[in-house]
Each structure stands twice: as C-alpha cells, then as structure tokens.
Design goal:
This protein is of the alpha+beta class. It contains 11 helices and 8 strands. The protein folds into 3 domains: 199 residues, Multidrug efflux transporter AcrB transmembrane fold, CATH 1.20.1640; 68 residues, Alpha-Beta Plaits, CATH 3.30.70.250; 72 residues, Gyrase A, domain 2 (2-Layer Sandwich), CATH 3.30.1360. It is elongated.
Length: 369
C-alpha cells in the first residue's frame, strides 16, 4: 500500500494516453456495430480458411472477416459493405450477361437499371425467353425471377448482392471445390447502433449488479472502490485497443460483440480477485480489531499473493496460447483477456484496495467488520 501513489500515476498515464488516442484516432468497430453484410458458404470439400481469406482480400469489398462456420467445410464471411460498390457492379453484370450470351448466342438483352442499387432488370424478346433466362440464372446461383407471371411479361429482375461478388472471386481461384450460399444477411446502421447501445447497457448493468452484491457482502466503501476498479479495467483495455491499432502488426483489432463478451468475462475475472482480497482484509480486521488499516491491508494482500500469482499465471498461459496459435477468429478475444487479466489482477491490489484505504484516511471513515 505504501507504493500505491506510483501505481496511481501509472494507471493515470495509460488512461490519458488511451483517451488521447481514442479522441485523435477513434475506435475501430466491427460490422456488428457499424453495419455490413454476413454471408455463410458451404463447400463440398474441406477448405483452408487462410487461403479463402487471402483470395478475398482484394475483392473490393473493404475489410473482410473470414471464419470457419460449423464444420471445416463451412465459411462465415463478414464485410462492412452492405451494397455492391459501383466500381464492381459492371464487372458482375458483365459475368451475368456473358453467361446468357454463351447459353443463348445472339440473344437480345435490354438492360434497365432499377432505382434500388442491389438489382437490375433485363428485358427480352418474349415471355418464353424470360422464363428460360430466369431459370438459367437461378441454377447458376443468382437471385433471378420474372418481374411478374403475367402472360406478356418479358422482364427478368436479378438481385445482385455481396454474396455474388464473393462467389465470382472464389470460383476463379477455388477450382474443384464447389460451394453454395447458405445465407446472406445485411446488418443496417440502425441495428448496429442498437447493438452498440445494448452492449453498453450490458456492461453498465453488470457493474451495477456487482455494486449491489458487494455492498451487502462487505461495506459500501469496498463495493464502490471495486466498481471504480472495474471501470478502470475496461477503460484501460479499450484505450489499449485504440493505442495498438495500426501500430503493432496483428493487433489491428476491431470492437465487436466478441470483444463485449470478453469485457464481461474480464469484469467477472477481475471482481473475483477483488472479492478474495477484500475477504482476506475483512478476516484480518476481525482478528486484529483496532489495528492500523494500512498494515492490515498489506498483510491481507500478501496472504493472497501466492494464490493470485498461481491463478493469474495459469490462466495467462492458456490465453497466451490462444493469442499465438488460436488464429484470426480468437485473436481479439484472447488479446482482450490477456491484458484484462493483467490489468484486473493489478487493479484488485493497487486500485480497489488502495482507493478504499485513501478514502478511509482522507475522510476519517472507520472501517469495522
């Protein structure tokens, strides 16, 4: 406890640097919060997810996240793009029209661009041709249908989405391994904002629940300093996300729902350490009634030190392995837990306990159990 002011300075320095980085550079959010498109593919054979990621890197769809989905033949692809970029759409329509010309040489095609970005309408010589074309495009995996089934209708509407761009990119490179699109979902900005709001509510409610529990279990002073320490853990971790983005290779991590889950896990892990320290403080104060609070806190912290090192160290070993070899899917989660465990263990001793001690000294609050 005698060194607590040095750790106040350390925490404040990291917090301020993180805050400056957040205001200057901002936070990078994933498509869960920004909005985007999620596509699920099912392949006939086992795929190398790293190769799929490399093949789609320069597809023109912005930042792309590729993960294994279910078995080793499934792929989950997420991109921040909701509609096909204008620079890519002509190329995709050229593929569609090339397929039609190949199947029906000399076919006359009149193209009508719809006001909706994700669709285009083709007009043909007669309804029979329109029916054949819609069936052909549907068999090729495109979302095509006749505009209406009236007898004289000769128009076919083709809805083109992000999944079509992904299909065309992978068809050229993944030969001999056919695949189909199982699902294509678009996450709009409104849904993203709702998820962002719900994530903040989830974190705040968890902290409020912990405050109420600790107030009954110990004293309100201990409960409030524990919650301040938890805010400290989350804010420092968020600051590190911003500080490391674009600076350390492999740690250009975006904040998404997985990271929110990691923050909630971190809160649970950190408060577990804090409760153990406070429990030992209470036991020590019951034995040595009227003793010096700083001495008693030091004694309590030292008694829990071996347990803290062993628990934190073994957990960190598992998290480090996930961080190094867990792949792209688990990297953000492992990174959050890695720093979160270190910061959470540190805050249980040098933030929660230290703040309780300083508050008691400054306002002459007598702590008695």
């Amino acid at each position: 406890m005698g060194k607590r002011k040095y750790f106040y300075i350390l925490s404040t320095t990291i917090f301020v640097l993180g805050l400056i980085s957040i205001f200057a550079r901002g936070l990078q959010f994933g498509i869960d919060f920004k909005g985007g498109t999620e596509v699920v593919l099912e392949f006939e054979k086992v795929i190398d997810i790293t190769k799929v990621r490399d093949y789609l890197e320069n597809s023109g769809l912005g930042n792309i996240e590729v993960k294994t989905f279910g078995a080793e033949t499934g792929a989950l692809i997420r991109t921040e793009v909701q509609d096909i970029p204008a620079s890519i759409k002509p190329k995709l329509l050229g593929v569609i029209e090339g397929n039609l010309t190949k199947a029906y040489p000399g076919i006359k095609i009149d193209k009508i661009f719809d006001s909706v970005k994700s669709s285009v309408t083709y007009k043909f010589a007669g309804p029979d041709t329109a029916t054949k074309v819609s069936q052909l495009l549907f068999e090729q995996g495109f979302q095509a249908s006749r505009v209406s089934f009236e007898a004289g209708n000769s128009e076919v509407i083709v809805r083109v989405g992000v999944s079509d761009v992904i299909k065309e990119n992978l068809k050229e490179k993944l030969t001999g391994n056919n695949f189909k699109v199982l699902r294509e979902d678009r996450i709009g900005p409104k849904v993203g904002n709702e998820l962002k709001r719900d994530a903040i509510i989830a974190v705040v409610l968890s902290l409020l629940g912990i405050l109420i529990y600790l107030a009954f279990r110990f004293k309100f002073l201990f409960a409030s300093t524990a919650v301040v320490a938890l805010f400290h853990d989350v804010l420092l971790s968020i600051g590190l996300f911003s500080l490391f983005y674009g600076v350390i290779p492999g740690l250009n991590l975006e904040i998404d729902l997985t990271i929110v889950a990691a923050f909630l896990t971190l809160i649970g892990y950190s408060i577990n350490d804090t409760v153990i320290v406070f429990d030992r403080v209470r036991e020590t104060m019951k034995i040595h009634k009227g003793g010096n609070l700083e001495v008693l806190m030091n004694e309590a912290v030292n008694k829990t030190m071996s347990r803290t090192i062993l628990t934190g160290g073994t957990t960190l070993m598992g998290v480090v392995i996930l961080l190094l070899v867990g792949g792209e899917v688990l990297r953000a989660f492992a990174f959050t837990l890695f720093f979160g465990i270190i910061v959470g263990t540190y805050s249980s001793i040098f933030v929660a306990s230290a703040l309780a001690l300083d508050y008691s000294k400054k306002y002459k609050v007598k702590i008695d159990f």
